[in-house]
Design a protein that fits this description.
Structural class: alpha+beta
Distance between the termini: 31 Å
Strand content: 25-35%
Length: about 210
């Protein structure tokens, strides 16, 4: 059953009505997270850090309701589960779409099978504009960025969050990685993005329990 938000009783109703009419309603926040425990775990268990970070970024988004809100005309749809769509490098890059599963090992197995197809030469440049049950995820492994902006269609029905992770580096004590989170201001505020970073860090700190 499709579930929609009761906008009239929503505490953010006035903010929603304001920002959904903006020409550029998205805002972006960048911060670094400590991946020391997770990177150590993935290296010890020979796990793909890409798939691991994809899983944790999506699990975090599913754990915060506002990240599952999507604009549908004058309504706000609440998805029960959202899935990751990610760019994958193969000469240039392709779009790949994964099915989120809370069980990491099941997600990992399925995702490795998807990645294998791209390594064997499969290519896909379909941006899947018709799908709203996604987050967009990218990795920029060459740059430890402190700000980020995206290519964008100016389409008022577009409301999917975009998560980008960058080059991680050790400062001698911790391994830090930049993360960019870009979201639609009609659907959430800085408070919700702050919660995203907080929950993501909590998940990164306990790989033995989650992975």
């Amino acid at each position: 059953m499709t579930n929609y938000l009761d906008i009239n009783s929503w505490k953010r109703r006035e903010h929603y009505l304001l920002f959904k009419e903006y020409d550029e309603p998205f805002f972006n926040m960048c911060a670094e997270v400590d991946i020391s425990k997770t990177i150590t775990y993935t290296q010890a268990h020979e796990l793909s850090f890409f798939i691991t970070s994809l899983y944790l970024a999506t699990r975090t988004a599913n754990g915060i309701e506002n990240f599952r809100y999507r604009l549908e005309g004058d309504k706000v749809r609440i998805f029960e589960t959202i899935n990751p769509g990610s760019s994958v490098l193969n000469e240039t890059f392709s779009f790949s779409y994964f099915n989120y599963q809370q069980d990491f090992r099941a997600f990992y197995k399925d995702s490795m099978n998807i990645l294998r197809r791209f390594k064997e030469g499969h290519s896909n440049v379909d941006p899947a504009f018709e799908r709203h049950d996604l987050i967009h995820f990218s990795v920029i492994p060459w740059i430890r960025f402190s700000s980020f902006s995206h290519a964008r269609r100016f389409n008022k029905t577009e409301s999917i969050p975009r998560i980008v992770v960058g080059k991680y580096e050790s400062d001698g004590l911790k391994v830090m990685m930049p993360v960019s989170v870009e979201v639609h201001h009609a659907l959430m505020d800085g408070l919700h993005v702050g919660r995203y970073f907080q929950l993501l860090q909590e998940l990164l700190d306990k790989p033995e329990e989650l992975l």
